[in-house]
Amino acid sequence: MVNVAIVTDSTAYLPQSFVADHGIQVVPLHVVIGGTEFSEGVDVSTAEVAVALRSFRPVSTSRPSPQAFLEAYEKAAAAQADAIVSVHISADMSSTVESAHLAAQQSPVPVTVVDSRSLGMAMGYGVVSGAEAAAKGASAEDVAGVVLSRSVGSKVVFYVDTLEHLRRGGRIGSASAFLGSALAIKPILELADGHIRPLEKVRTSARALARLEEIAVTAAEGMEHGVDIAVHHLDSATRAEDLAARLRERVPTAHEVVVVELGAVVGAHVGPGTLAVAVSPRTA
């Protein structure tokens, strides 16, 4: 039986219990606050990022180095992995995939690098499904297929209090069409084929959150094996918990509805007050 190890990056925002239960290695991206670099999930909190953003301190992000990935691959090989599947944030949002490819060239065992075309728990659930397939003896190719299928099959929608942080970070894409009326609207955005794009614009935050709920309920309909749902937030825990509670009531096919705080890297681009929902179809 082939022993396939799973490596991902910190933008999957997997709860620590998921990481431990499935033996997943997580390589952190970096966030720079006021000129000081931190490793996401290691030595900087999302609360610190939220404070910096609210006070207009300079905040930027950067990918892991190829060396960081190589160290993860070497660790997996030392633990008797025959192959590695390395799953990462959409290449249209970060050059993390590029670092993984560079490291793969020097890895002591073969590495299949997967551009998830996603982020957050949409990617995270794909990683978990890949780890489950690997535990059953699937090949690296099959594991990568499972990961990508679930990642791109997920529906991701989010509400941001302001488009300003996305604009500053250059991640706004076609959602820039909303900028002209940004003060008058509350934007609902979606992740589609690795890109952030505008979905709807409404007049109040209450209406935006109601639309997030409706979109998630609709996305869960007709999924043969049910769904898993993650509600992400940055500095908006109460609203996230309320939304999750409503989704638990309205989506009977949800195997789980979890609340997961967005980490520093994505948080730096979307800003405080963000809420996002990832609806991920289960395969069995």
TrEMBL record:
Keywords: Lipid-binding. Pfam families: DegV. This is DegV family protein.
